[in-house]
Amino acid sequence: MGASQKFALVASVLLLLSGVLLASEAEKSKDSESCNAESKEGCGCQQSRDKDSKKKDAEEPKADDTKPKVFYYKPVKGDTPYKRTNQMVRIPGGTFTMGTDEPIFAADGEGPGRQTKVDPFYLDKYEVSNAEFELFVNQTGFKTEAESFGNSFVMENYLSEEVKKEITQMVAAAPWWLPVDGADWKHPEGKGTSLKGRMDHPVIHTSWNDAVAYCKWVGKRLPTEAEFEFACRGGRENRLFPWGNNLNPKGQHWMNIWQGKFPEENTAEDGYDYTAPVTAFPEQNKYGLKNIIGNVWEWTQDWWTTEHTKDFKDNPKGPLSGTDKVKKGGSYQCTMQYCYRYRCAARSQNTPDSSAANLGLRCAATKLPSYLKKPAKDEL
Ligand SMILES: [Ca+2]
Ligand SMILES: [Ca+2]
After folding, report:
1. Which one of the ligands is nearest to 342 CA?
2. Where does this protein have compositionally biased stretches of type Basic and acidic residues (predicted)?
3. I need a surface site. Which of 34, 328, 333, 376 has the fewest CB within 10 A?
4. Which of 99, 114, 109 shows the shortest CA–CA distance to 239?
């Protein structure tokens, strides 16, 4: 581990500790929280990012991000043996209440509720799968940041004894969350692991910079936080989940989260103790979105801030600068007791070069990419 990574680990510990303190506050009032323990803010190499002008460009998406400058993928029969999951749905736009006046975690900036206008746009129906990301990597040779750094974060429960033996560092405030050498999108649990049987699962260990590069390549862009939340709410005002306030309507599971006592026991009553296929579970609201909450966290364009006013916002794009990017939707590691962030108003953050086993993406677009205008024959 290099000096910069050691520094990053120390920074992670400090930030994670602050997250746990916040969590203990929240615990007193309602549900406890350690989703901050899922974050690893500060992890990664700031220095290398600054040196890389290409990545620097990617940090500030421009208005013309919908026009791919480098590659423009047109599906060709035989390109991939896997079913495509790159379809988009149209989100009609409108004015909605973003955030909430009844925050579960006020320190996250979940409130106040503010009237927010969002123009119509398109959003991926599914999280980006390993199969879709593989097309990108195969055709561009793209190297993710986790691959460049040589490690990424994975929860202890998913690691082999062999891999665990090699790990000498640990985040004191979140000992279940380990930096694993060789963990990247293709080797989700480190050396010796593969994507076998998981090509339709969401790609993980992708940083914000990786996500921007991927979305640009497919002629799309990341959604703004406002767009994500508008889509998540599906036209319903002030509800917890995309479908309403009931966790399991009709007695069924609508998302991939954690059941049981975190982190000791995952009973996987929803059918999955780790990531689920991006096509799993019912459509979560009338826009036809799958796993917009649950499964993996998803990056948005916006820089992170917790300072919001009640003023009307017209297509907000977040602060002009910052250190962390907003992620939304919660993950398979969230429970009511230990990360109640699988709610549309909930939010969290990581530095743009962070990656982890519970963090992925889906893309948005202002204009539907032309290759999607005619549904492919093999469309789901
Ligand atoms: Ca689950
Ligand atoms: Ca998700």
Report:
1. 2
2. 27-41, 48-64
3. 376
4. 99
- In angstroms, how far is CA 354 from the centroid of its own chain? 11
Alpha-carbon dihedral 63, 351, 337, 201, rounded to 10 degrees: 70
Nearest to 100 by CA among 236, 222, 223, 290: 236
Q: Are 220 and 367 in contact (CB under 8 A)?
A: no
- pLDDT band of residue 332 (cuts 50, 70, 90) is very high
**276 alpha carbon, closest ligand:** 1
Given a cut of 50, whether residue 361 has pLDDT beyond it is yes
Residue 11 has pLDDT above 50, yes or no: no
Provide the whole-model pTM.
0.81
Rounded distance from Cα 258 to ligand 1 centre (Å) = 5
To the nearest 10°, the Cα dihedral for 294, 131, 136, 76?
A: -130
> Rounded distance, CA 290 to CA 278, Å?
7
CB 86 within 8 A of CB 372: yes
Instruction: Give the pLDDT of residue 176.
Output: 83
User: What are the backbone angles phi and psi of residue 234, rounded to the nearest 5°?
Assistant: 55, 35
* Mean pLDDT for the stretch of residues 26-49: 33
